[in-house]
Design a protein that fits this description.
heterodimer, A: 81 residues, alpha+beta, Ubiquitin-like (UB roll), 5-stranded mixed β-sheet, 3 helices, 5 strands, 26% strand, globular, B: 754 residues, Aldehyde Oxidoreductase, domain 4, 7-stranded mixed β-sheet, 6-stranded mixed β-sheet, 27% helix, 24% strand
Chain lengths: 81, 754
């Protein structure tokens, strides 16, 4: 079980929660289970969500493992110049 | 990914040196080929008809007269680019931006295009196209567009992110919020509070090379596109999707690039050129004029920002909040969202909240511009930080050092930081000789900090070793700032050979696996990671070949400084084999030797900078002169320090133009009044002092050499650093960018009491 912190706008879709607990071993499973529990997340996942694990931002490595006790933070996927 | 990207301390032989860039001679002799330098036999000239109205319904387009003109080979409208986006809203916006469908949404919006045998005929044909417009009320100002009474650009848009679902459409596409703690409690602890509102005007990246391409569609459905872009693989995806092609049937070759800075990260005219070529059955060259680049490519947002920061007498910030309103042009974006994330990223804050609003206006579609959205947020926040330091009576550098984020700080956008460089850049700025230079009359010094995320992405690299031992490196990230040199250095480092033995090229989309575009300061970060991985894969093969040549187990063969060495006393008489020797024998040991790498380069380290600026203001005219400018920035590891310094200087130069001169000026009719470099003035060499740089190297733990991106952060602090310098010189707080002479003069006059 990992605790996932949501950014403000995403929290609104999760019924106003800023944190959710999910049983997931990696980012792929995290997104799948989030979409199952909160169908409103799907368009956000399609648009792109980045995952910060202990401060390191992962945008595309969905195989990245989620260590127990790690700080996991969801962020919008960013544009750059 | 079976590649371990973690940083480990090491010494370098090639990385960190400053060899001459491999593309330098071609660029200074004019031999380098940019987008408009490519030509094909029988090519036609493409031209685009653009809306003269800021907002209008397109009732009818009659192209019949143009089609009958001798020399015209194709005329297209939105009907020739049917919607194949399959519910992908972002791609639909790109399609609609390439060619207006029901409404023209800004002055310059494409409504039709022609391909003709020459430019004169094409221009004549455009005049013969009859468009029946119903002109609609328009809005170009970000604050005006948010009002309930503003003309609506799209009545299907309801604001996302509100607690209650809205019942009426709005120009505000989205509200976002970031932060932590309790700002009310934090402001309750404050002895001093500064609250200000700021505005920044819309600016263009100002790349010297306009958008240019040659498209050639064959009768068998395959196509070629030669184009100036920051990401030819992304352009292939976009064009293939919009034209209903298989991606593999479209080969895209990127030209040299005369600047992009985010403006060449998605397609503008390329699908139009391909559609014209498909219809005409001949190659079509389409080059935007400077007027078109200003009116119809992607400038940055105009913004309106409120900031409030509170601090105790001892200089500790207790609370900070900002409301950021960013214009997106006529299509939804995430520009205010990024501004809201970056605004307070430099600081250690217990109570912080930022709110962003994305706002539609009748201006061109906003595109990324070098650390998109961050410079405007930094301008507002760093101006207020400076003012707060003054109110408390603290030195602005000391005040920032006291409140700077550090390893373990929860960032204002959420995650906790790893090792970061904001503190060291501030300490370096504090101790920099620039800070001790005396100032004269009407001169002021300002400083400011800046942050950018940096990111990586999908990356594919091939490293091929020729039979003569020379190395060809094929990369898929477009070289926007000297990456062919830096990646050659990395390949040389990893293989243990000379830099001159490596030649890097940017491969076309049919020659290499997919690569994300060069954005997010990712070019050297990502492709160096893939190059290291490819080189290590090649070394594995080199060791196997040497083992064959020696007839010994491969486990007994190690790679050192460009040679294989047989380890152990039993091989004492074996002379080391060089890469050249192993390559020369490759035909008899298993064929060509190459290393490949396909990976997702994640874990880009965040980047911070501190800038110092001295400005002289003429109080009679409001004119300014930049006297001195210093950039201090963390590079993680500077692979080619000269290019890192160039990135620092380039970001500062663009920021100086943005801060002092550049702005989109619209008339009451919603038309752009200054779409040219005479009236939209970017800085030239004579406007700038030598920009001093100091590179700090705080290794990124997620890159084998510690590399962080360096391209974008340098444009984040200048607006604020210059605003603080001008405010100190003029004796009045400047709150509106650009600080053009009339704006500065008006502020001085108002301060004097009119």
């Amino acid at each position: 079980m990992v605790e996932v912190t949501l950014w403000g706008s995403l929290g609104a879709i999760a019924g106003g929660k800023s944190k959710v607990e999910i049983e997931a071993k990696d980012i792929r499973e995290l997104f799948r289970k989030l979409a199952e529990q909160y169908p409103g997340f799907e368009p956000y996942i399609d648009r792109g969500i980045a995952v910060a694990i202990d401060g390191v931002i992962y945008r595309d490595t969905w195989s990245k493992e989620l260590p127990q006790g790690a700080e996991i933070f969801l962020l919008p996927r960013l544009a750059g110049g | 990914m079976n590649f371990d990207p973690r940083y480990s301390t090491r010494s370098f032989a090639s990385v960190g040196t400053r060899p001459i860039r491999p593309d330098g001679v071609d660029k200074v002799t004019g031999r380098a080929r940019y987008g408009a330098d490519f030509n094909m036999a029988g090519q036609l000239v493409g031209r685009v008809l653009r809306s003269p109205h800021a907002h209008a319904t397109i009732r009818k387009i009659d192209t019949s007269k143009a089609e009958k003109l001798a020399g015209v080979k194709a005329v297209i409208t939105a009907a020739d680019l049917p919607d194949l986006t399959d519910g992908d809203a972002a791609m639909y916006d790109i399609l609609d931006n390439c060619m207006a469908r029901k409404k023209a949404l800004y002055d310059g919006h494409a409504v039709a295009a022609v391909a003709a045998v020459d430019a004169r005929t094409a221009r004549q044909a455009l005049k013969l196209i009859e468009v029946d417009y119903e002109v609609l009320p328009h809005v170009v100002d970000v604050d005006e567009a948010m009002k309930h009474t503003a003309p609506l650009l799209n009545d299907a848009i309801f604001t996302e992110g509100l607690e209650e679902k809205p019942t009426r459409p709005s120009n505000i596409t989205k509200r976002t919020q970031f932060g932590h703690g309790d700002i009310h409690e934090g402001f309750g602890q404050a002895d001093f509070v500064v609250e200000r509102s700021f505005k920044t005007e819309q600016t263009h990246q100002g790349y010297i090379e306009p958008h240019a391409c040659v498209a050639s569609v064959s009768s068998d459905g395959t196509a070629d596109l030669w184009v100036c872009t920051q990401g030819h693989f992304v352009y292939r995806q976009h064009c293939a999707q919009l034209l209903g092609m298989e991606a593999s049937k479209l080969r895209v070759t990127s030209s040299e690039i005369g600047g992009g800075f985010g403006g060449k990260t998605h397609v503008w005219a390329e699908p139009v050129a391909l559609a014209l070529s498909r219809k005409a059955g001949r190659p079509v060259k389409l080059v935007m004029t400077r007027d078109e680049v200003f009116r119809a490519s992607g400038p940055t947002s105009a913004t309106s920002i409120d900031v409030r920061i509170g601090a105790r007498k001892d200089g500790t910030i207790t609370a900070a909040e900002a409301t950021l309103r960013y214009s997106c042009g006529p299509y939804a974006g995430m520009w205010a969202e990024i501004g809201a994330m970056t605004a307070f990223a430099c600081y250690r804050l217990e109570n912080v909240r930022t709110v962003g609003y994305e706002v539609l206006v009748n201006r061109p579609k906003t595109a990324a511009y070098r650390a998109p959205s961050a410079p405007m947020a930094a301008f507002a926040v760093e101006s207020a930080v400076d003012e707060l330091a003054k109110e408390i009576g603290m030195d602005p550098v000391e005040f920032r050092i006291r409140n700077a984020a550090q390893e373990g700080t929860r960032s204002s956008y959420g995650p906790v930081y790893g090792p970061i460089g904001i503190g060291p850049t501030l300490e370096a700025a504090k101790n920099h000789p620039h800070m001790k230079v005396p100032l004269g009359k009407n001169q002021g010094r300002g400083m400011a900090c800046g942050f950018w995320f940096n990111f990586g992405g999908q990356t594919c690299t091939d490293l091929n070793i020729g039979m003569d031992g020379s190395v060809s490196l094929a990369v898929g990230t477009v070289d926007v700032g000297g990456s062919r040199a830096s990646l050659s250095l990395v390949a040389a480092e990893e293989l243990g050979i000379a830099y001159e033995q490596v030649k890097a090229v940017v491969a076309d989309t049919s020659s290499l696996g997919y690569n994300d575009m060069t954005d997010g300061s990712r070019g050297t970060f990502s492709s160096s990671m893939a190059t290291i991985s490819a080189a290590r894969n090649a070394i594995k093969i080199l060791r196997e070949r040497a083992a064959q040549m020696w007839d010994i187990p491969v486990d007994d063969v190690v790679w050192e400084k460009g040679h294989t060495i047989a380890k152990g006393e039993k091989y004492g008489n074996l002379a080391a084999l060089s890469l050249r020797e192993i390559a020369a024998a490759s035909g008899k040991t298993g064929g060509p030797i190459a290393g490949h790498s396909e990976l997702v380069a994640d874990g880009a380290g965040v980047s911070f900078a501190t800038h110092i600026c001295d400005i002289e203001v003429d109080p009679e005219t409001g004119a300014t002169r930049v006297l001195r400018y210093t950039v201090v920035q963390d590079a993680g590891k500077a692979v080619h320090p000269t290019y890192v310094e160039g990135q620092y200087q380039g970001g500062a130069a663009q920021g100086i133009g943005w801060a002092l001169n550049e702005e989109y000026i619209y008339g009451k009719d919603g038309r752009l009044q200054n779409p040219g470099f005479l009236d939209y003035r970017i800085p030239v060499c004579s406007d700038l002092p030598m920009i001093d740089t100091q590179i700090l190297e705080i290794p990124n733990p997620n890159h084998p050499y510690g590399v962080r991106g360096v391209g974008e952060t340098s444009i984040v602090p200048p607006l604020a650093a210059i605003a603080n310098a001008v405010s100190n010189a003029a004796g009045v707080r400047m709150t509106h960018i650009p600080m053009s002479p009339p704006r500065i003069l008006a502020a001085i006059v108002a301060e004097r009491g009119g």
